[in-house]
């Protein structure tokens, strides 16, 4: 079993390592057979070109702002919506929740045009607001939190808080949210990583180089005629480093949150 897990781990890590190898050599390495496995000494030169060609640091900052806002927003707002669907009684609750679940069956690409028209009417085109606001909620996040809250929090606990005079907001914030914090943290991390890696929507709404996110900056490294794979891989590796650092610091908490809370039931 450990041998199988080791092979699977190597298979998962090798593409990242190979991306680093290409980013230290040149484009020819990407198509060489067998693949080169020894890094070269060209990484600093290519990384310097990345920062010279596009405003890469600004793009990383923009991605950090967008991803952090979306991650935090989904953790809180989806928890609120999940709490309402799981523990509050109101007319049409089940119907509304069914509609939320059904939206997950609609391909993301189908919502691009109406979403762009709304953003255009609001005057948010070519702004980070156009990336943040649509991502603050997700149907999957609402479903995730609703299922967790329904099984993790007893009705008797909430009724006791109500008897003590707590309002609905106080019940959520002081009683329910501390209990579901691990699941909300995992959802926020998923939202952060998804927003960091998103390409399609930022590519549509962003026009100015100083507002590029990290994925659009990598796209800007490519010329209209050919692709310098060494340069592109350098940018991709630099864009992946923050996620690797994040996983090093919160990986244990991510795994424990999934095991202890996210799939409880």
From TrEMBL:
Query: Known InterPro entries for this protein?
Result: MetI-like, MetI-like_sf
> Which top-rank group of organisms is this from?
Bacteria
Give the subcellular location: Cell membrane
The alphabetized UniProt keywords are: Cell membrane, Membrane, Transmembrane, Transmembrane helix, Transport
Q: Where is the ABC transmembrane type-1 domain?
A: 60-250
Q: Does the keyword Transmembrane apply?
A: yes
What's an example Gene Ontology biological process for this entry? transmembrane transport
Q: Which residues form a coiled coil?
A: none
In the record, the note on similarity to other proteins reads:
Belongs to the binding-protein-dependent transport system permease family.
Name by which UniProt lists this protein: Carbohydrate ABC transporter permease
